[in-house]
Amino acid sequence: GNPTIMNCLVVGATCLGASYFLKNGSIFTSKSIRNHECIPAHEKLLNQNEEFCKKEILEVTEGVWVAIGYGLANSIMIEGDDGVIIVDCMESPQTAKDVAEAFHHVCPKPVVAIVYTHNHQDHTGGAKEFMKFSKNNKCDIYSHRLTSDIISKFVSKTGTIAFIRAARQFGQFLRSNEHINSGIGPCLTFDENTAFDVELPTITFEKELVVTISGVEITLIHVPGETDDQICVYLPKKSLLCPADNIYKAFPNLYAIRGTPTRDALEWAQSLELMRNLNAEVLVPSHTRPLHGREKIIETFEAYRDGILFVHDQTVRLMNKGYFIDDIVPLVSLPPHLINHPYLQEFYGTVAWGVRGVFNSYIGWFGGDPAHLHPLPPREYAQRMQSLAGGADRLLHAAKCAFADGDAQWSLNCAQAVMRANPDGSDATVSAREVALQALRSLASTQVSANGRNYYLTYARELEGDLTLKPSPGQVTSVVKHIGAVEVIRSLTIRLKAESCADVKFKVVYLFSDIKKAVYIAIDRGVASSDDVEYSDSVEDTLKKHSADLVVTVLASVFEEIAARLRNKSASVLSGDMRVEGRGLTSSIALKKFMDYFEDSAADFKAPF
């Protein structure tokens, strides 16, 4: 890497027009920030690269290998009598292809089974590449019973915002001189060209499953923690444990800033205790490097468990004493015997985000301060803040002075207020945007957490106007194929532009003749609803029975192509591939008007400032 980047550590900042001084004595100017010549990084985060800085296939014990450094997660290969078992499949076809080929070079036996330790993309996205080394390109995939449902819910409900915020957290669209790592792996190889193409599990279980595959005795155990569907893989004859994402060499992500429900800290701690009691001699996590030695593994499990319990218990203690959430965060810090533990360094999650997550998991979004019960809208708050400062120029001056004093956070707050209060592209807004960019990059350079650094820097690129985050057409196509025609209709409810249809009452039933399924989508004065209904080949019966205004008859496969923009809707109507019929209406025009009440996915997504 760039020697300046690899050796630098920000230790202070002067004013906007001056310099950062780096550990190696070189000077980093604000002009450099604008031109992206170098974005300094915290020394601890730079050193974390040692965990995964090169691509490796390690034999951790006889007949078990782990691939490290190929992508965000590890992949693990277990050799059996007549085949191999793969535990976790990387995030994308690109990374999976490299790992699958490297594994096959080490052990040329066919892939006879795959295990998903949980639903995350970096563990499931490349299964098809491994299946190419199976007989007939197919094999069984084992997982917890919740995994399939979680995957489907993710892509159909929150896929767009999850894509955007995950891109910020993992920094996959950052320039090479901005991205250091992703905390628990070198990077997430998932960009606008990566299709969502997950193979769903074929064998699932609830609590525990003991199975022999290709002569290898494997125990799969449900260990909820970082996800509700998390499972560990235990090989009793080798005393080897794959703990999935429940432990890695970084502070646990009790709350992920990419946007997830808070993970249950007590369940996670219980799962760590369960895995500790297996007394494994080899630990092969799905992120960072393996551990050897029973005593060392037990000590690491105990420290990780205690770190989670400490954050949970102290948050709840102060919560019950009546502290507001913003007052609790600075009061919770790990005790001396944990704060320097190598597995509790904040390269990924942080104590502060964990505190907020625990608080929210118990008593919700309201932090307790009555001033926050009905806060002013952000723009109005910014306008009043600007007025109090004496106008936009004075508030902008305050932002610049804060930056000059080394207070990038307050500088960002002030600059953001100027932009929110003056969204008209005025000179003050343009200047405030420049200050905000400096502040975001300054904050990024001090982060130990890769997630924090990547989020700041990606947002800076968005603010600059040279990066727009939204799924590509190819990714939309792959999602449509995955969820299917019926779920595409159901998902319309979360895209209704309620403000545009307060007086509208209209119902459409879709008949998918090739799969013999029917589903309706309706608007009732700004509220959308959708559900399955009984299928009938008769349009007239469907109109009457379901009080529908329109019935659309189409093959599910054709509709999926229309939804994915691979086929023109109007041309499909004209050709008869999609029939639109209703009660005395100009049916195709009525359908178009109805569909105009729904958002076009992420087409209008904008960052708040």
Question: How does this model look, in words?
Answer:
By secondary structure, the chain is an alpha+beta fold. 40% of the residues lie in helices and 16% in strands. The chain has 23 helices and 20 strands. The strands form four sheets. Strands 3-4-5-6-7-8-9 form a seven-stranded mixed beta sheet. Strands 10-11-12-13-14-15 form a six-stranded mixed beta sheet, covered by helices on one side. A hairpin with a 5-residue loop joins strand 1 and strand 2 (27-29). Helix 8 (159-170) crosses helix 18 and helix 15 (392-404) runs parallel beside helix 17 (427-445). The chain is globular.
Give a quick set of tags describing it.
609 residues, disordered N terminus, seven-stranded mixed beta sheet, six-stranded mixed beta sheet, 40% helix, alpha+beta
Identify the overall geometry.
globular
Number of strands: 20
For the largest beta-sheet, the strand count, sense and barrel status come to: 7 strands, mixed
Summed over residues and divided by their number, the pLDDT gives a mean of 91
In percent terms, what proportion of residues is strand?
Answer: 15-25%
- Number of helical segments with 4 or more residues: 23
Order of strands in the sheet with most strands: 3-4-5-6-7-8-9
Radius of gyration: 27 Å
Span of the ends, CA to CA: 33 Å
Helix proportion range: 40-55%
User: Low-confidence parts, pLDDT < 50 over ≥5 residues?
Assistant: 1-35
Class by SSE composition = alpha+beta
Short note summarizing the structure:
By secondary structure, the chain is of the alpha+beta class. Helices cover 40% and strands 16% of the residues.
